[in-house]
Design a protein that fits this description.
Length: 473
């Protein structure tokens, strides 16, 4: 359980503690302007939560002043410029840095890095990642439509999912997207889409290597009992069916073990198993090209300086296997690309105490960011400026009419006042993309800091837009 979260300059000063704890690790990385520049700096980078004020990259505490920064800008200053609250705030340079780390890690291998759009489908972020050369992994026809509009090359995308619909498969076939086969009925539907469009379709078999990713059951996907992927015992049946269909070309195998994985040996174990499948399938006469190991690398949500595997650790653990079999390595990172590059910025509505519990009530909620309510996920919470008020233990909760509406439990924070800024960190993945209109909360605006300037990258939704879906009924 996290114990240091607030910023205080008196008493049990959380800010001072953080600065002292991390001063020895201060990183002097200055935000670079381009993906290429980040690439140079990405080698061996371990993330730092305290950096020189105004000179760091991503979200960090200013070592000299205790304010929270996004790249060169104080989040407190941004709050005063932005009319909406809550809002998502991104550091493009941090996201570019994360992508650059993957590119660097893949050096020397034939590879296809595909961004998992489900993590964050902000159109501006998608366009910028497409422009930086990423491929994409998609889980719906609408994601596919948006990805092509954003500039992703369909031939460098993969359509995934256990319940792909005929129209989605036809669109994918038409566009030349690679499609994962997930089940017997999915294969039938893909073959039907190929026949209907008259297009040759490149397919991958999604195989469950049955390796336990040791993560929350909601984000575990690669076990034999998972709803995803084919029955391994039927693999011969799948190969025979594919052979019968001249419009289908089997180009690879895919596995995705789960998300928030913190040990790379898990990827290694799965890759070894997948290689046996590759050899077996090749022995059946198929020319497999791709080994897709999915996404899943975790991040340090705790902000406790956990040493987690980097993209280089991940790729190096499977490098020899990929080389030995002459395969192209496909990876599908989502969380580790975008999560750390964002925070949800909220305003304190008030502070209250009931029984022995202290609450900070904020304007963000489970409608804006549902991971804590949905699967008890921990996301670090901080005030945006230094405080000299007492540090207390708080539950940080939203205004939604549900007791399960919380952003953080038992957080030690300096006591804030009404109107103060408070952020939920690492909110770039599976946060805005899972936001809802529950209690008729409108989905929030999104802003991005890019090379020192603030820009809006999504408008807040309005009640008028909500009412429009009932027009004329
Ligand atoms: C098939 C597939 N690929 C990639 C990802 C991205 O995973 P992560 O965001 O953990 O990297 C997911 C998400 O769970 C997925 O289902």
């Amino acid at each position: 359980m996290q114990t240091i979260s607030g910023r205080s300059v008196a008493g049990r000063s959380a800010c001072t503690a953080r600065v002292a704890n991390r001063a020895r690790k201060v990183c002097v990385t200055r935000a670079a302007a381009t993906v290429e520049k980040h690439e140079e700096k990405a080698v061996g980078a371990s993330w730092q939560f305290t950096q020189p004020a105004g000179k760091g990259l991503g979200f960090y505490t200013g070592a000299e002043d205790g304010y929270l920064y996004c790249d060169q800008m104080r989040v407190e200053d941004i709050r005063h410029k932005v009319p909406e609250s809550p809002f998502y705030l991104y550091s493009w340079n941090r996201i570019a840095h994360n992508y650059a780390e993957y590119k660097k890690a893949l050096a020397g291998l034939d590879s296809l890095p595909c961004y998992a759009v489900k993590a964050n489908n902000n159109f501006v972020i998608m366009k910028q990642l497409a422009a930086a050369g990423a491929g994409a992994v998609l889980v719906s026809g609408n994601e596919l439509k948006l990805a092509t509009k954003a500039g992703f090359d369909p031939k460098r995308t993969i359509l995934n999912g256990n319940g792909k619909l005929p129209w989605e498969l036809e669109l994918a076939a038409e566009m030349g997207v690679n499609i994962n086969i997930d089940s017997e009925f999915d294969l039938e539907n893909i073959a039907a889409a190929a026949r209907k469009t008259g297009k040759k379709v490149s397919v991958l078999l999604r195989i469950n290597p049955d390796v336990d990713p040791q993560v929350h059951s909601y984000v575990s996907t690669g076990l034999a009992s998972s709803k995803f992927g084919i029955r391994n015992s039927h693999i011969k049946w799948f190969l025979d069916e594919i052979r019968k269909e001249p419009l289908l070309e089997l180009v690879g195998v895919h596995s995705h073990l789960g998300s928030t994985i913190t040990k790379v040996n898990i990827f290694r174990d799965a890759a070894v198993i997948m290689c046996d499948f590759v050899k077996m399938i090749r022995a059946e006469g198929f020319q497999l090209k791709y080994l897709n190991i999915g996404g899943g690398l975790g991040i340090d949500y705790s902000h406790q300086g956990q040493v987690l595997p980097t993209p280089t650790d991940l790729i190096d653990t499977v490098r020899d296997i990929v080389k030995e079999l002459g395969l192209t390595l496909v990876i599908e990172p989502g969380r580790s690309m975008v999560a750390t590059g964002s925070a949800l910025v909220n305003t304190v509505t008030g502070v209250k105490t009931n029984g022995s519990k202290n609450f900070i009530v904020i304007d963000g909620s489970m409608a804006t960011l549902i991971r804590p309510s949905l699967y008890g996920a921990y996301q670090h919470i901080e005030l945006t400026k230094p405080h000299s008020t007492p540090v207390q233990t708080f539950d940080v909760v939203g205004p939604i009419c549900e007791s399960g509406d919380y952003l953080g439990k038992d957080r030690e924070l300096a006591t804030p006042s009404k109107g103060d800024g408070i952020v939920v960190h690492d909110a770039g993945a599976y946060c805005m993309s899972m936001a809802s209109n529950y209690n008729l909360k409108m989905k929030p605006a999104e802003y991005m800091v890019e090379n020192g300037s603030l820009r809006k990258i999504r408008h807040e939704e309005t009640l008028e837009q909500h009412l429009a879906v009932f027009e004329g009924l």
